[in-house]
Amino acid sequence: MDNLFFTNEHKMIKAMVREFAESEVKPVARQLDKNSEFPKNLVKRMGELGLMGIHVPDKYGGANLDMVAYATVIIELARVDASVAITMAAHTSLGTLPLLLFGNSSQKKKYLSKIASGETLSAFGLTEPEAGSDAGSTKTTATKVGEDYVVNGGKIFITNAGEAGVLSFTARVIEDGNDMGIGAFIIPMQTKGLHIGKKEKKMGWRASDTRQIYFKDMIIASSAMLCSPKVGFKAFLKTLTSGRISIGALSVGTATGAYEKALIYSQDRIAFGKSINQFQSISFKLADMATKIEASKLLVYHAAWLKDQGKNIVKQAAMAKLFASETAMDVTKDAIQIHGGYGYVSDYDVERYFRDAKILEIGEGTSEIQRLVIARELLKDLQF
Ligand SMILES: Cc1cc2nc3c(=O)[nH]c(=O)nc-3n(C[C@H](O)[C@H](O)[C@H](O)COP(=O)(O)OP(=O)(O)OC[C@H]3O[C@@H](n4cnc5c(N)ncnc54)[C@H](O)[C@@H]3O)c2cc1C
To answer: Which end of the chain has the least Cβ crowding within 10 Å, N or C?
Structure first.
């Protein structure tokens, strides 16, 4: 498959990230999960390797790499530790992408170099207590007062919030008492009036930092506006479609890591005098796992490749995210089954992979929302 989508540069990136993941991430992954410890040192290392600025143009110190390269990096990281992968993905795809897509030159100048080097981590605030799948129900307001905006409201489940230096967020823009629609802003995390909540205790992705944030009479200059309501909230969300490729890639990596562990275990574990993979019920499970991973990988790389060709990827990205995340859930569940009782205890990593997989069916659009998007795309061209 690598030959289908990869240039020599992609192959080199894959080898480089595999080496980093195996030698630096894998040895600490279990401990980071156990202690719910944010991987600060690994973020620094990913900055040094150019991963934190993977999409950023070289004039800002970024690696300026394409979506196929990005998917490869996420797969390789998630294969050993999904928390590290989502920390990097939330920074690059969610936190940085709105700035790359909608930022003006002074906003880019202000933030991008430090973002690309990994010195500044970024976060993205869209979800609110009453606006998750229904992101259009955003209640946070940015009210124009003179040349400034006064922001009130709050966001929940924000990845990297406690570690980030910069935040992109959405808010309902109010001007002269009128609701102008939803816009997006970019601000330093240290802005007065921005309050960061306590770290969430999660089922999985435990080393990733997830928090609520609150805005209380936070005053920001008009120059912090990233995307005006005129550009349109739908257009804004559409451009974040590539985030679905992120989660698709995270799903492929998570599933691959669990599958590889189950494959080795199935050879080593002897029952009734033979390796358990000599039982058809186990070998068929392995066959199904490998097949679903292969199909997921094809969907993810195809969506990434289409994105690199400048094509509309709404349907393909949703399909990739849906299928790959449900595959990750199935594969990690079967990996535990193959490990028997050992799969249920934390000395074996498959229970971590299983816990890390569930969120993949929820974040960046639930499976239900992906089906809704796909169905809408399928039906929109029909003549009635
Ligand atoms: C660990 C973690 C990290 C996250 N990181 C971020 C982040 O960095 N930034 C950010 O902004 N958000 C983040 N999120 C939020 C995440 O994207 C939302 O949780 C997700 O979009 C779902 O929204 P919700 O939780 O409000 O669920 P809801 O929207 O309330 O959905 C509840 C259920 O109803 C279903 N449902 C809702 N609407 C429909 C419909 N129209 N048709 C059919 N079914 C429907 C859903 O599929 C789901 O099963 C994160 C969440 C978690 C748990």
So the answer is: C
